[in-house]
Structures are given as C-alpha cells and as structure tokens.
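Hi there,

I know you've been waiting on this one. I reran it after we fixed the sequence typo, so this is the corrected version. Both the input and the resulting structure follow.
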Amino acid sequence: MEKILPVGKLEMAFLSSLLGRFTDHGEGVVIGAKVGEDAAVLDFGDRYLVTKTNPITFPTDEIGWYLVNVCVNNMVVRGVRPRWMLNCILLPEGKTTPEMVEGIFRQIYEACHAVDVIVVGGHTEVTHNLDRPIVVGNLIGDVAQDGLVATGGARVGDVVLITKAVGIEGTSIIAREMADDLRKKGLSEKLILRAQHFLFDPGIGVYHEALAAAETGWVNSMTDATEGGLATALHEMSEASGVGLQIDAEKIPVMPETHEICEAYGLDPIGLIASGMLILTTSPTRVEGLSHQLSALGVACTPIGVVTLADEGRLLETQGQVSALPYFAVDELTKIL
C-alpha cells in the first residue's frame, strides 16, 4: 500500500535527501537549501542577497499579518534587514468577497510598513476547491557579508538561550479558534482574552531583538521556533550545525496561559508552534552581555542548555531523567485544529 504522508513538516531525513538531490549549490550560493537554515543566501559582490518563502495555511482572521511576521522572522534571524516582499494570495471559491481580499491586502501592507518592507508584487486569484484563504510570501533582503548569522553556526560548548516563552503563537491560535470550547472546559474568560492577545503581546515578531542580537557580533547561531515548536527548532539547529544538545526542561519558560491551555487538550508545549521565540547560541562568556542587550528591549532571555558533540545526541533532562529530545514533525496544534 502506498504510504500517505501526514499533515505537517516532512521527516528530516527524507527532506534532507530531497534537498540534496533536487537543489543546487552552485556559483554564488552561500547558503542554499538545507534542513535547519531559514533563508537562502546569495553572493552579490560586497553584499549578500537573502530570500525566504513561507506559507500561511491555517484558518485565521489575521492571515496577512501572520504572513509578514513569519517571513520577517526567518530573515532577521540571519542578521538581515528585510527589504522587499512579493505575495501569492489564493482565495476560496464561493466564499471570497471584495472585503475579504481588501482586508488581506491591508494587513500585508500595514505589517510590512511597520518594519520598512516594500510590497513589490505577487499574484492573487480565486482558486477551485479551497475552503479558506492560503497566502504565500517571498521576502527579499540584504546584508553586509560580515553581518550574516547562520543557523548552522552553533559551536560545542556554546550556551543555548531562548527568548520569551514556548508556544506563544500556538496559545494565541487556540484561544482565538477554540474560545467556546475553552470556556466549556472551565478556563476563565480573562485567561482566554490574555491568550488571544499573545499574538501581539508578547508577540510573534522577533524583528528588533534578532537584529539587536546579531549586531552584537556575539551570536554564533540563531533561529526562530515555528511549526513543531521549540523542540523541532532545536533539532533543526543541531542538524544544521552538526552538533548535539543537552537541554534542561525545567529551565524552559512556559506562560501560565500556555500551561493551562495545553493541559486542557493534552498538548506538549515544546511541540506547539512558537513564532515569537528566538533560539540563540553564544559562548559562556557572552551570555550575560547578550541577555542584557535583549533585556534593554524588554525581551526576556533564558539559558536552557548547552551545545555538545554530535555523537552525544540531542537530549532533554526532566527532573533528573535524561531522554531523547522529542521531534514534532506534526505540530501539536494539529491535534485539535
């Protein structure tokens, strides 16, 4: 029987095989298609051109805003200032109104304007057999060659730090899409409203803190946690860098709202979509200085583990017990949405 792939990211080994066979790493390609790397980097002389493509496929009334923030996140973790954006907007047959289309355009424009990105083109159509809008963004930026940060730069002995807390984006999505069910489960209206606002506070954008961290010159590796949450992003960083990890579960910050919502549905917070969180590695001597730089922006920064040799594996310590760091090819969000 033919194997049917589940919803979510492809298994890392399969994806790595595809990228190795069907993408090119020729002249001018500094960082090409590789598991764990958030954007492609091309050599344009004295500067690098950086580009990233991302979709938003889940139902949300903030789809344009999500799109811009997710694309921008993937670029600024390279230390790159995003410049230009093109968007492909696919709209559902029989459900699309002019107001819907204008709303998506407006969200994209306003979110881009907030981070000095220019919308330069794309494609829009009403598409057969869609039941909701799907938008895909292609973001382009540039950076001086000595300013680039790679996901694959983590070094043995580095400290692993994360900003904010796990599952910020997933918490907000669940609170927005499942509010009535959460009420039935006994969660308070106050908690649900707070969780819904996580989209904006603490927020799913990392624009300011990522660029500030990169500008210190102290960051060896940086990425953001998206689908599959913190755990999957750690796997991808480890894969890209060719290193192992030792992570302390008890040091990972979890907001009370995230804890209660995950408890209500039996979800693991470290596998819940987590835009808004940066993952960084730096030398032990730079931890205090880097944390201070981010704190000055109002962004909490927490050490959660260390980078180890690759043959030591990717490990999670929980209350003194060490096990393999879980990998969430399918985000925890898909269990309920």
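Quick highlight: The first helix runs from residue 12 to 22.

Best,
R. S.
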